[in-house]
Amino acid sequence: MGRRSRGRRLPQQQRPEGAEDGPEGGGKRGEAGWEGGYPEIVKENKLFEHYYQELKIVPEGEWDQFMGALREPLPATLRITGYKSHAKEILHCLKNKYFKELEDLEVDGQKVEVPQPLRWYPEELAWHTNLSRKILRKSPQLEKFHQFLVSETESGNISRQEAVSMIPPLLLNVQPHHKILDMCAAPGSKTTQLIEMLHADMNVPFPEGFVIANDVDNKRCYLLVHQAKRLSSPCIMVVNHDASSIPRLLIDVDGRKEILFYDRILCDVPCSGDGTMRKNIDVWKKWTTLNSLQLHGLQLRIATRGAEQLAEGGRMVYSTCSLNPIEDEAVIASLLEKSEGALELADVSSELPGLKWMPGITQWKVMTKDGQWFTDWDNVPHSRHTQIRPTMFPPKDPEKLQSMHLERCLRILPHHQNTGGFFVAVLVKKSSMPWNKRQQKLQGKSSESRETTQLGPADPTEGKPTDPSKLESQSVTGTGDTEIIQTTENLENNGNKRDGVCGPPPSKKMKLFGFKEDPFVFIPEDDPLLPPIEKFYALDPSFPKMNLLTRTTEGKKRQLYMVSKELRNVLLNNSERMKVINTGIKVWCRNNSGEEFDCAFRLAQEGIYTLYPFINSRIITVSMEDVKTLLTQENPFFRKLSSETYSQAKDLAKGSIVLKYEPDSANPDALQCPIVMCGWRGKASIRTFVPKNERLHYLRMMGLEVSAEKKKEGAVLVGESAGGAGQPEGEVSEEQRAGAAGSLDAEAGCDSDTAAGCDPTGAELPR
Questions:
Q1: Is 190 annotated as a binding residue?
Q2: Which residues contact 131 (CB under 8 A, 6 or more apart)?
Q3: Which DSSP state fits 114?
Q4: Is 16 annotated as a binding residue?
Q5: Residue 242 assigned ligand-binding role
Q6: What pLDDT does 746 receive?
Q7: How many CB atoms sit inside 10 A of residue 174's CB?
Q8: Binding site annotation covers 215?
Q9: Percent of the chain beyond pLDDT 90?
Q10: Which residues does the entry assign to the active site, renumbered to this chain (predicted)?
Q11: pLDDT at 535
């Protein structure tokens, strides 16, 4: 297939624009959430009202409130992201500074409504507000609050995420040792929640668990990479597959290959999106039952594939932003029925106190797009059999239906807590799926068939309605896992795969679309580039150097990345069956003039929090005033820093350093979260290599506000750029300022819109 044909096919897998709830907002949906209003549009759909009134999903007497809520703009919701100590510092700043300034504030004679926490979200880390952008610009205090929200969102410390979208990760009950699969992950706001949960203990640089985040859309995978990289975790891998046929992965356990089963799976499937009417206004005129009828099969296939890959005792959350039982209870009932007791619905009614929800329904009917109802599969004429399937109806047997406990599903209605509509079901796996009973006995050689498909229907993106008329039909064939293992072993035995090199899968085995990724090459433990690094930074003997990788097989290694040992295991054993878009965090990058110093590689800010626990030299402890100086000046001379800092720096050789700020618990007014920064010890000055957004964030947490004008001029904050070459210390040229915003990383894994935070390989450093 030619490039043009591929380009034509890709949009068919995507949901309509303007429906995301990710941190970037991306399109009409995100913007509308902040603007608090829409252009005038007739928010009526008689078929929609007739359908849901007949199904009785809304409690008696609440219909008018339900429809009234759907016609109102959705409140903006934000979630404080990042790891615990930093998230708490942002929360402290929000509550004690910005929210206090909004109290008793009036704009045009109206009292401003102060943002309120979501009652059911733990530790007050999620808030909602009805403030529109128009109101935000009418008062200096509000403008300041608005700038804070925009800047912290850009730096990834605040995520603009719809309230109901936050529920599925919470119900997964993730622990740091869990292996997690996010089947339909883009744009990534739920994925970032999962990563945060893995890193609940910031003192553990490498949690045992990991997140594999998948999406069928190659382009949206890069948005997913962008969101995930903000958390700088070595435990996240982004892959590009059709969720309904995502391949089984193998891992090495004591020298033998076993199939990887996940402890937690998030299955947020493509849906008609009628729960998103408050922000996706197109749904009002486009809504028809045909959308749900066409998506039901895909949803069931994705959920089934997830259940197959779930470990016994594991938990899977199935969710949609649709209120339709055809996409909700019908999928769950069908999955439970064919699992023959292997799966059961968990009772999670007490897990999110404060959340209002309706129990799942046990009886429903199927309606065609022209309004014809069917209560039983037997009544469906043969001419309708391609459109209506038996799995869309509730089970006939009352005992079987009762044993399913469909009332344990959660349906969130918009008028109950001023949110969007949503559906969530939590499934627990009690035993192997009936067609896969031999999987444990064979130690990874499972008889379960592996579905291989043409690249077909779209994976979901959060809150995005899918146009089912554009979904392609899938042809499914069976390939046993035993065959897969044997094929892989044969390839390795034939010498077609080099040790430690994990490239994209060959095109003959899998249809690939989008960019061709660079390989992932693990650095041998006896590589000559490692001893100088170990010596220069006095790395602890426990440092896992086997987890270091690069993205090139030839020439000089310019960037060194790091993954957890569990993801290394996954990478090394699955390069023939898995298309990896990105994994690992950058920990070192080569200096052009590195040979002049004792070590050719300098530290990268992206991976410093992972690397820091293993570094035993070249660490300078700095005060809060030093941090302010270092972040607001380009190359401050030693004399501008405290005497304590100078005494630590004066005896160090030139080269890369770690700057560490430790909070003083005796001074509650000072910043109470630790800061670790990369820097460079020059001849008479110190420079920090911290991305612009991260600089802004730290300064704000220390009580320094940077005006929009100063940010534009670049006079105060300069990103991590190639500046400094040939300039006097403490000065920066206009060209360098411009370059800070436009420098790009030549290697994969560096996002253009965070270029100010990338480590340019050719940076010449202060001397």
A1: yes
A2: 36, 76, 112, 113, 115, 142
A3: P
A4: no
A5: yes
A6: 31
A7: 23
A8: yes
A9: 54
A10: 321 (nucleophile)
A11: 94
Lookup result for tokens 């904050």 = 717
Q: What is the DSSP letter of 94?
A: I
Single out the residue of 611, 648, 605 nearest to residue 626, CA to CA.
Answer: 648
User: Is this model's pTM higher than 0.85 or not?
Assistant: no
188 is an annotated ligand-binding site residue: yes
In terms of Cα–Cα distance, which of 412, 352, 418, 411 is closest to 128? 418
* Tokens of residue 227, six digits: 């969101």
* Structural tokens at position 551: 């993205």
Is 399 exposed, middle or buried, given 0-12, 13-18 or 19+ CB atoms closer than 10 A? Answer: exposed
pLDDT per residue over 430-449, tens digit each?
999 998 875 444 333 333 33
Ligand-binding annotation for 542, yes or no, is: no
Higher per-residue pLDDT: 709 or 329: 329
Which residues are known to be catalytic? Answer: 321
Distance in angstroms (rounded) separating the CA atoms of residues 557 and 600: 11
200 marked as binding residue: no
- Joined together, the tokens standing for residue 224 give 């997913």
Cα 668 to chain centroid distance, Å, stands at 33
- ∠ at Cα 766 (763, 767), nearest 5°? 125
Q: Could you please report the per-residue DSSP string of 457-497?
A: SPPP-TT-B--GGGPPP---EEEEHHHHHHHHHHHHHTT-S
| pLDDT higher than 50, residue 20 | no
| H or E stretch covering 213 | strand 210-214
pLDDT band at 453 (very low <50, low <70, confident <90, very high): very low
| Total number of residues shown for the chain | 767
> Does 187 sit behind a cis peptide bond, omega within 30 degrees of 0 on the bond before it?
yes
Query: What does the alpha-carbon distance between residue 634 and residue 724 come to, in Å, rounded to a whole number?
Result: 8
Strand pairing of 585-590 and 559-562?
antiparallel
What is the chain's mean pLDDT, rounded? 79
Give 366's contacts (C-beta < 8 A, 6+ positions apart): 289, 293, 326, 373, 374, 375, 380, 388, 392, 393
Query: Does residue 486 contact residue 576 with C-beta atoms inside 8 Å?
Result: no
* 430 Cβ neighbours under 8 A, 6+ residues apart: 312, 313, 341, 342, 343, 344
Q: CA 24 to CA 7: how far, in whole Å?
A: 24
Distance CA 126, CA 21 (A): 14
